[in-house]
Amino acid sequence: MDNSFFVEEAYNQEPGVVQHITTGNYQVDRAAGPDVQLWHLAFTQEWPIHGQDHQLSYTLPYLFRREQGRWIDGWGDIMIHYRRQVWLSPDRYTALAPRASVILPTGDADRDLGEETVGAEFNLPFSTLLGENAFLHANAGLTALPDAASARDRDLVHYTLAAALNYALHRDLHVLLEWVGLWEHGLNAAGQRRHEWISWISPGIRCALNPSENMQVVFGLAAPVGLTGSAPDYGVFLYLSVEHLLWRPR
Asked: How many CB atoms within 10 Å of residue 56?
């Protein structure tokens, strides 16, 4: 249930269960140049706090970018997240878990790896069961970056909408279809701020292994495809999650 790729699901970690998530997102954007290639790597760790109602996590991003015949790589801006499980219905697995995140200026803005400012992100994930074998996830969120380096020290606000349908072919084998839409704030050629519509769709598949009663390993693969001219043309998304019981709840 809690291993979506681009669309955030609304299920917090169960008491005592910690999740480690590693992702790799390869993108090709021919509009940006014939040799522009991107690898977005990220590691996320999720921890339940005092049961399932509260969850803390963090994301460590690392970026590789090939442009004009050379590679640039380095750490991006680290994010620290808090989620509150405000609603969870056991009958239909209907859930709501608002998230608030702090964005720390750890990336090098001079190499286009960060925004050199403390930002914030808010997201509202909703999830529910459809029938016996399908889950629906939906997101609405925004990101605020005051005095952002990419906007020449002006404020940026991005808006996000997303939805996903996950279908279980088998208990441990699921297919996914995810859609993401992003109104990204940036600068036009004249140096004026404007919002640009970026959208992509991503079919994918995930498979779970259960080496023990208290551990699950999930492998995932997706193929995102850009739907607008501002989105990357195509890419490959790799996913690995290790989830295990770290302590037994009282």
From this structure: 14
